[in-house]
Amino acid sequence: MPQPTLSAEQAATFHELGYLVLPRFKAADELQSAVQRAHAIVEDFDPSLGASRFSTRDRSLVADARLIASAEQVHCFFEEEALDDNGALQVPKSRSINKIGHALHDRDPVFRRFSHGPELAALAAGLGLLQPQVWQSQIIFKQPHIGGEVGWHQDATFFVTVPHTVTTFWFALEDATPDNGCLWVQPGGHRSPLREQYVCEDGRLTMQALDRTPWPDRSGALPLPVAAGTLVVFHGLLPHCSAANRSPRSRLAYTLHATCGTAAYSPLNWLQRSADLPVRGFD
Prior knowledge:
This protein is α+β, with helices and mostly antiparallel strands. The protein contains six helices and 16 strands.
């Protein structure tokens, strides 16, 4: 097993606050390769073949079958404001995509390299993921002017395990600022209960309320502006959000979601893997 690379102080910070900011985790050449590949995937995407809009405010905009299929593939999802009422693009294709997901870390050679390696394996071990299983990867664009708001949520909503183990690895591929939609977090909020569970039953996706604990307001939240190359890791129960991007600059990010194989992964989670593409760790 890789040896943990976190210092005692960093580990204590993660457990106290529910998140940890690691500047310069990725080198400039890795960032360049990832950004170029992200744009190349969009360039190769044919909108006429169809894609769902993606919105955290109205999840009915995402077709259930298409989202479920993306668990083992690489699919593009439109920004909510990229299409008019008739489904026609209102912006150039290069600025229309909200995100790409959800199996880049297994299906795409560039992001496979970006998502694996001894540094990430050691970090996961230091965070307590004894048998890490990487379920999901996403390229999140936060397009200039139309990048959608992401409301308060907990990532454990989408990756329920018993006990809760999902951990998010959020890589800034470009600078993230308050102007272009950086992350906001509730420090210490990972000690609050899971409020919702995203359930898949018979091919239908629904959000089920679990707890009425209110979401934080901005007075109890902290923005996390970070430079490109920074990795933010956070606990699956940590409430976090990001504002809409109305600036002229994109806020490109890449995320991985991993659970611990020693925990029971819920069969009701929307993202499941078949024997043809088994879930694996960081090494």
